[in-house]
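To whoever is on call:

I kicked off a structure prediction for a single chain this morning and the downstream step that reads the tokens threw a length-mismatch warning. I double-checked the sequence; it's 118 residues and nothing unusual in it as far as I can see. Pasting both halves so you can look.
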Amino acid sequence: MRHSVAHGGSAVEDPELSALARVGTALADDTRRRILVSLLDGPAYPSDLADRLGASRPNISNHLACLRGCGLVTSSTQGRRHLYELSDPRLRHALTDLCSMVLAPPSGCEVADEDSGD
């Protein structure tokens, strides 16, 4: 499996690295992370996400457009409204696993108790 090869002095990326870069772009922004976590609960309209996250509707719509462009969410038209959801059930599992992994302290890492007086 090739990930990056030098070609004429420039690196050529394969599709896997490109996909990881898109995910990195999506996760780099706090609002987009919050949208993705909110969509773990199921599909939502931009106005509902705006209310839930305390952001403006246009701001949420811009971030949803980015997430759609990154391939992480899809939308379906419901009358005049657009309903957004995670693009793939595997994404739900991946996000849940990622959150669990980063929230769990690494093995052998001890957190000092602030109340212990140490």
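Update from on-call: the warning came from a stale cache, not from the record. Cleared it. Sanity check on the structure: The CA atoms of residues 56 and 111 lie 38 Å apart.
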